[in-house]
Amino acid sequence: MIKRETNVDEILKEIREIINQMIPKEAKITEVEFEGPELVIYVKNPEVVMQDGELIKNLAKVLKKRISVRPDPDVLLPPEKAEELIKQIVPPEAEITNISFDPSVGEVIIEAKKPGLVIGKNGETLRKIAQKVYWAPKVVRTPPIQSQTIYSIRSILQSESKDRRKFLRQVGRNIYRKPELKSDWIRITGLGGFREVGRSALLLQTNESFVLVDFGVNVAALNDPKKGFPHFDAPEFTYVLKEGLLDAIIITHAHLDHSGLLPYLFRYNLFDGPIYTTPPTRDLMVLLQKDFIEIQQSSGLDPLYRPRDIKEVVKHTITLDYGEVRDISPDLRLTLHNAGHILGSSIVHLHIGNGLHNVAVTGDFKFIPTRLFEPANAKFPRLETLVMESTYGGSKDYQMPRDEAEKRLIEVILHTIKRKGKVLIPAMAVGRAQEIMIALEEYARVGGLDVPIYLDGMIWEATAIHTAYPEYLSKNLRNQIFHEGYNPFLNEIFKPVANANERKDIIESEEPAIIIASSGMLVGGPSVEYFKHLAPDPRNSLIFVSYQAEGTLGRQVQRGLREIPMVGEGGKTEVIQVNMEIHTIDGFSGHADRRELMSYVARVKPRPERVITVHGEPQKCLDLASSIHKKFGISTRAPNNLDAIRLK
Amino acid sequence: MIKRETNVDEILKEIREIINQMIPKEAKITEVEFEGPELVIYVKNPEVVMQDGELIKNLAKVLKKRISVRPDPDVLLPPEKAEELIKQIVPPEAEITNISFDPSVGEVIIEAKKPGLVIGKNGETLRKIAQKVYWAPKVVRTPPIQSQTIYSIRSILQSESKDRRKFLRQVGRNIYRKPELKSDWIRITGLGGFREVGRSALLLQTNESFVLVDFGVNVAALNDPKKGFPHFDAPEFTYVLKEGLLDAIIITHAHLDHSGLLPYLFRYNLFDGPIYTTPPTRDLMVLLQKDFIEIQQSSGLDPLYRPRDIKEVVKHTITLDYGEVRDISPDLRLTLHNAGHILGSSIVHLHIGNGLHNVAVTGDFKFIPTRLFEPANAKFPRLETLVMESTYGGSKDYQMPRDEAEKRLIEVILHTIKRKGKVLIPAMAVGRAQEIMIALEEYARVGGLDVPIYLDGMIWEATAIHTAYPEYLSKNLRNQIFHEGYNPFLNEIFKPVANANERKDIIESEEPAIIIASSGMLVGGPSVEYFKHLAPDPRNSLIFVSYQAEGTLGRQVQRGLREIPMVGEGGKTEVIQVNMEIHTIDGFSGHADRRELMSYVARVKPRPERVITVHGEPQKCLDLASSIHKKFGISTRAPNNLDAIRLK
What we know:
2 copies of one chain form a homodimer.
Chain A: H1 9-22, E1 29-35, E2 38-43, H2 46-51, H3 55-63, E3 67-71, H4 79-89, E4 96-102, E5 107-112, H5 115-119, H6 124-133, E6 136-141, H7 148-159, H8 161-175, E7 186-192, E8 201-206, E9 210-213, H9 225-228, H10 235-242, E10 248-250, H11 256-259, H12 262-267, E11 275-277, H13 279-298, H14 307-315, E12 317-319, E13 325-329, E14 332-338, E15 346-352, E16 357-361, E17 385-389, H15 402-418, E18 422-426, H16 432-447, E19 453-456, H17 459-468, H18 475-482, E20 494-496, H19 500-508, E21 513-517, H20 526-534, E22 541-544, H21 553-558, E23 563-567, E24 573-577, E25 581-584, H22 594-603, E26 610-614, H23 618-632, E27 635-637, E28 644-646
Parallel strand pairs in A: 2-3, 5-6, 9-10, 10-11, 11-12, 16-17, 17-26, 18-21, 18-22, 19-20, 19-21, 22-25, 26-27
Antiparallel strand pairs in A: 1-2, 4-5, 7-8, 7-28, 8-9, 13-14, 14-15, 15-16, 23-24
Helix pairs in contact in A: 4-6, 13-14, 13-17, 22-23
């Protein structure tokens, strides 16, 4: 729990004086407050401020803060009234599908099939809306597939808006507190995911601030919290949690090994500060966290946290788009950049101590274009330390070229179909599943594949979230969707599996089929169900398209285990005979392979002084670190969990 | 402050049952308690237990604890009565000079000029004393020079014995608490003295325990606590202090850069646990700490701590002789070994987690025989990580051979005397001063040197402490003292300077003289006074015989600064012209030079898996680490302050 004494009242007083001098009286300022990483000015007449396009810019320059001007809550029309007016102003051809309000920021979110018509020529319609209803209008394209997750997140933010505003103010006051000392030293401690994959968590510390980058769980080691959870026993982490000194948590992307233990912090009241991440990461991580506890529940385990803890995650998340620069503490400035790994995945860039040092943490990243995403960003304003993943950091970890991988995938599928078999592709609901979908969709459209592709276990819902954030997808896909008007995710070849009965039907059917099901490493989820039933039949095929971590069933099967004891329906253990074909096609990975990792270091601008390799088996982290040192002469380290490394 | 819940009552209950079974009833056990790192059994009839020589050994084996049997306080004779009886029993030829009592351990300390006669044939006299007075007799040779420090320490321990026993019991209960978890990880954090000299402090952490090795102050950087003090702002250290989790502090040796901030912890109630060190280190550090605050006071500064805080250091110190093995927490076992640097200096060996890992921290050490000490111990039962000093770790840091250094010293002295000049040798009161004394004493005795050698600034008192611990001196010196009956420290050529008047007389006298005065780096103390007055006269000589740290006046003069602004008697700044000859003779150093450092790594048994270089300028630590890695293929590190290194 944040417990710092922030004493910003003095600072706010000075700021208010400056604002009163610069903003015309007619704007009628009612309040000036820090809310999250912004300074918010509430006025009764926002138009007065908006008329002068330079006014806010100048103010921001003078105050060195990001500034939002919002209508005073008193002047906002009641939502029903506002909705009515908006519908009158916007032409019906815009096809508004939903209007929702976020009172915590005075925003009205207008979903429309043709967002251009809501905006109007030069933003005319939008301006008119603002003038009439006072709510700040935000226009969103109606997602072609409805996402339950997105709607429930919006409704949480709407219904909890009072708490939310209180929270944002608390955060704002913490960010803009007077620093106790000049920035002096910086270090990072590995709490998890150092020389291993799973439970990623990095604690960055300065003499002023503390932030976590990622807070994951190792789903393959849940029976032992000492291995499954980040190191709660690291003394500096215990201290920071106990004293309420954690300024923020930044999440690189939604996968559970990076975000899966976040709600746990809320369950045990260990944190009530802000979580920074992109909007798609927020949505996807909530989806995966829910899925995670449901799987635990259905396996008869006591879930690590409850749905209401996930709700707290939503309430505490502040989203940032790529490239938005925000102060998150007196000496830390955060920017998220595209990582190319999954939807919304980010490289975290921290500008520390007003230029004392700059760190980028890649999270998981990809450095070639994929069907879904652009390659990871490799240009930063400044960069001294690069913390990079090493999943494929071994000297022989070269992946198959993407087109070859797709060719092999099709081959295996065609062979399997020919012998009337089924193809099971275990894939994380988020990421690989959609990449495979797009590849197969093209082949279905162009090459004539005509067996159904079943999507089971959150994959459909994850896909819905993809369609809601087209601006986070690759240029190609965006073009296809926006300009060619064709959304490949909507191809009818895709059949979401709604429940266990449908799943049973698919398994029992004699027809060939492709099944993409989560989890990707056969640790719980429907993929395990399919595997159990499809494994004994030699006509079937299993295709691994993603990294199989140490300790997972996927890894065992991949390594050749052919007799697997599993708990059957009656609760009894039975031995599953694996007779199906087992294939591994690694070209679909969302992780940079060895070549990409090395080329990232070669191309990243500016050249870092130090590279720290993490997120890989020990030998891969070490190998990558030593190769980078040899090739580029950059100082490298492959630290262990609980190592703390002084950066400055 | 120690705040752990120790719940040892259960453990003690079990132990008492076992003891009751093994010790005969007639011994009349009155109490069984942990006191410091021992289990103490109080009995009304100690003889009963003592009769069976194997009994305590067997008990120790069964209980896996160090065991002391003590007379119940009720049976102890009153001190006056006991003293009377002892004087009756011991023959007058023994020449008892002092008898003091330490009620906290039921000990009577008998000082005699002929200790052998107090012990008697086969310990007969001693046994007789024990039988009559019940106090456990400890016989000590009467030091030939009276040390005020030693007497005041003894009197503190005697007068505070009630508090002391309470303290020892608290410590014992902490040491033998039930560990919360199995030993799992071990790491060290550099709080000070990493890649620098000064403010040495290393925090060793396991998932069960926390100990500090050394807690020094950088006397050359006192104006900036951020550089002068160890890193109180290291989050794990803040945590450990705040939560009262620091199990112990171990002090390698008395120099202020290793022990100088200890009393500060007591001044601010940050610690009330045990300090482990050798008896001479305890005495010498108390002397140096007192000197330190007196110098601060006389310079018009507010001293960092008060005399009563130094008293707390005494009350909290538990002394160990070299080779004594003691549990200091549930998963840490400590042994101190000779380091050859100064009187009582130790290499700290920690056996961690019942064999999980073994660390040795050299502190400052010397690996060739000197006039005063044997070379550092290089043999350990087990050793995986070696943390070693690097003061002379640079590739060119070879010192002059000792005999050559002595020759040069004599040369400079003779030249100076010839031209009627004075020789000023700034030296730390502890260490170099005595080494130079012994060298000059031999030359005076054998070679005919006949100018007075003045000892100023605690040097005489430090010498007194040396004479009180002959068993900590080199074999040669011990032989000279015990068997040849000649103590070189007592040569009449040495003249302690008692006060400022005497000092003035020496300075103003026209006669040549040798002056050995502290501090060794010209940071306060009488050496600075002498320097001010002797510097302008070209007949005089200044000889540096020890390391001059960055930031000290000594370093500046050594580097060639010849005009020095200094505050004169009236408080005005005057510029001192340095016309005296400036010499540096490095062969007297108490630090291993580059050759010794490398040879230590070559010879230390067993060969460590990892060497961590500390306590040296950055380039020296790095150079030494890289040379050790190249030559021995051992993994090395030269960490920064605030780096934390996982050992296991």
